[in-house]
């Protein structure tokens, strides 16, 4: 059983979202699965770019909407999925998603809420929201992270170093 904790971060510009992703990438280990949720344009792919930086991936990830998954080599391999067009679990089984979820790399999934039942209990869930307030900067994002207590404590200290409160 995993004891889950949560953390909320306000990113005021795109670079902050990338910094959060970089801290996340540095804190991940092989076999970790990150499930991303958020509206279209919320910043999921921006966060993935930061995660890739934190994993020392060469190149910049693009959203794999039409191919479902892209793999990138780095300090730890990054498997970047996009479930936007996935119709159900059977489609994922056809591409062998479990080989990636339980493999030697880090798996990050955009639109994870489309097929939540495939995620392991230990998955790190991240929801990115665009706060709707009058007269606010449209680049502000609220990043809500839920993960195992021990991991989240380490991640929190890493984020505090790159985004002082």
Query: Which residues form runs of ≥5 with pLDDT under 50?
Result: none
**Overall mean confidence score, pLDDT:** 87
Counted by DSSP, the helix tally is: 5
Lateral strand order in the biggest sheet: 1-7-6-2-5-4-3
Strand count, sense and closure of the main sheet?
A: 7 strands, mixed
Tertiary shape: globular
Strand content: 25-35%
Distance between the termini: 32 Å
Domain count: 1
- CATH topology term: Rossmann fold
CATH superfamily name? P-loop containing nucleotide triphosphate hydrolases
CATH C-level class: Alpha Beta
Number of strands: 7
The sequence of SSEs as H and E is: EHEHEEHHEEEH
Alpha-beta classification: alpha/beta
Summed up:
The protein is built from five helices and seven strands. It has helices at 14-27, 44-54, 89-95, 97-101, 149-162; strands at residues 4-11, 33-38, 69-72, 78-82, 106-110, 124-129, 141-148. Strand 3 and strand 4 form a beta hairpin.
């Amino acid at each position: 059983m995993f004891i889950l904790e949560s953390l909320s971060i306000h990113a005021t510009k795109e670079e902050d979202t990338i910094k959060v992703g970089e801290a996340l990438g540095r804190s991940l280990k092989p076999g970790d699965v990150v499930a991303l949720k958020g509206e279209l344009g919320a910043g999921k792919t921006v966060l993935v770019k930061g995660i890739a930086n934190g994993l020392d991936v060469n190149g910049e990830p693009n959203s794999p909407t039409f191919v479902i998954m892209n793999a990138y080599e780095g300090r730890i391999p990054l498997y970047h999925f996009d479930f936007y067009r996935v119709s159900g679990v059977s489609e994922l089984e056809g591409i062998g998603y479990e080989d990636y979820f339980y493999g030697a790399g880090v798996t990050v999934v955009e639109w994870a809420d489309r097929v939540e039942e495939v995620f392991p209990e230990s998955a790190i869930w991240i929801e990115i929201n665009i706060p709707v307030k009058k007269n606010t900067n449209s680049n502000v994002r609220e990043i809500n992270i839920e993960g195992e207590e021990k991991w989240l404590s380490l991640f929190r200290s890493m984020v505090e170093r790159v985004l002082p409160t």
